[in-house]
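quick one before i forget lol
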Amino acid sequence: MAMTRDQAKQKWADGPRSGPSPDPSSAVDAATLRRRAEERLRATADLEPHAQSLDEETADLVHELRVHQIQLEMQNEELRLAQEALEVSQARYFSLYDLAPVGYLSLSEAGLIEEANLTMTNLLGTARDDLIHKPLTRFIAPPDQDTLYRCRQRLWSTEEPQTCELRLRRPDEGPASPIWVRLETSIRTESPDGRRLWLVTLSDITCLKEGERARRDALARLQLVAEIAEVTFWEWHPRTDEISPPPGFGPRSGPKSEPDSAQTTGEARQRLDDWLARLHPEDQERFRTDLARFVAAGNKPYELEYRRRCQDENYRWMLARLHPLAGDHSPLDRVLLVQQDITRRKESEDWAIRLAQHDPLTGLPSRSLLVQMAEHMLASARRSGGALAVLFFDLDRFKPVNDVHGHAVGDKLLQALAQRLRGAFRAEDLVARLGGDEFIAVSPNIHSSDDAAQVAGRAIAALAPAYRIDGLELHCLPSIGISLFPRDGDSIDELIQRADQAMYQAKRVGHGQFQFVTEALNHQARLAQELEDRLRQGLAHAEFQLVYQPVLDIRDGMIVGADALLRWPQAGGGDIAPKTFLPVAEASRLIHEIGHWVLREATRQQQAWCAEGLPPIPMAVNISARQLRHPAFLPEVAAAMQASGIDPAFLTLVLGGASLMQDVEAARRILDELKQLGVRLALDDLTLSGCGLGVLKALPLDQLKIKRDLVRCLGVVGYMPAMIDAVLCLGRALQLDVTAVGIETEAELEFFRQRDCYRVQGFHLGTPMAGDRFANWFRGRSALPPAGAR
């Protein structure tokens, strides 16, 4: 019968009762055993006198029986001694196992604890019986559940020992500091049934972690000292209202950014009023107000920005960090003011604002600013009963110029052409660049087709003369499509769309031509209607599908999210591209039904992945302008969250900047309500959206996306790296996550790696996949190789 653990410990304490410890080498063969039995029988023969009175045959039989009896007794004695030695050895093992300096666990494949040593119970502050048949996850701190999950996945997929670090959760959930442990795990196969056990060793590394934290704190202090060495810093004494450099410190930030004579002339103290006199007049009162708030708040640090006049008499932007310094009798005896020159950051923000509203190459308004200004012109025309013309320009033969002479020449051609185009229109006309070689002009007070034809003719004449660029003589004429308000449409989007259709008709006629909206274009509208009907059928027959493209953190190659992308496969093979059917869906308002389906399907897939054992995967879903403004949108989001049971923090709604700029205040209210639901919000076309810095600050955004349109121009358009740097700078200034989309080459990946933009997605890293394939890809995912290794 097997001993209990306590019986085994007592055995070790008592030791064997008698006899030597058995040695496996002491086992004897049958002949030796019989010889020893014969010897023991002869030694006792004198004690059995009755044996002499037996006949020879009976005596022989009795003799054999006694020999066998003695052999059996000797074997039983050896077995008893071996059993006692085994029990002592087992007791030693149990004690060594229990008293080991590390915690030991044996778990089933399902993760249930089957065995635990005393050290493990002490780590968790619980009895052994409270551990048995409980899942290990119950004793892991919530923030580290994913760490354990990934470690276990690697173990079962590779069958190689794995190691990770995590925190334990004690059942009492007391206020004590977390217990950090190093978890080492392996697999052992039990014989003979082949059952596999999950073996876990836990070493207490709390002291090591505390040492690491102390080292990090010391490093942070050193980094703060290094930062302070680059700026100017002061001490303000609230009781005397005097300000001076801290004892032993002087100016460190150079003559241009150091505005105060006190530090350059050696004056020890000055009145705060004198110090404030060098602030910009518009900032002085605000500084005093913020300073009063800081004092009222007590001992909390404070930050404020202002402009300060420097030695060269120019104003520069400063960021002041106020830190309270307690005295012997007051919690606010002094205030340390750390002053940093942030002029470059402010200039970058201003530049980003201009990039958002103007085309960086030509300086013309971007599409978003065009729409804003054109809507005002259209509203004025409605009120006055007037008319206006929209002219859509597309340059003929521009692509060959780019292909033959390079993008540098192409950029210069666009700049020269934009200058001529601007000069061909009146001051009240609006000229903008849509992108590439497409331009838009909006001319108010155009009352007839003849008036519009004269405008188009002047524009063609202005662009007709040759362009001399880098020793080349280039010719580039436009094809122009013209739509008229109110004849061809009632909104600026509709007028641009119809003018775009007319432009393609002009291209078919020949170079340097213009065309008005015609009946033939109405035929195209009918084709759009047919596509709309097909969309309705597709919705009714569930023809749409979602695929999921992974978003990776290139520091460790881990998946940090997935983008849900819409596909419309056709029975005959192939897909209808989203760029073909989504504009029709948007115009027909079917986008509401499609968007609602996408939202429900994406959250359903998140729930399905969790049911398969995957951790919650953040999901990004694109939202159109019409969806955002629809009154049922907020309830639909809430219903999708409730139906799936997914934490709203794992859903990111991706918004187009143009949809926000159509009515910023209304958009802000909607986004605030979405944030109350707990979802995250992303903006995906900052450079084209016209969102100013003030607008971005007012919106509760979590993330910016750098679109593929920008990424693919790296190495092609000379200014594009600076443009992307501006977006990254703005994202960091606003404390937003930034994700680069459309990474298709190693060079593009390295570009963002060097700029510490770690969230990326694209075909180079992972193609869009169906839900089940994505799950398999997730399970088999390993870290990205370091740069240059692929």
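fyi The first helix runs from residue 5 to 14.
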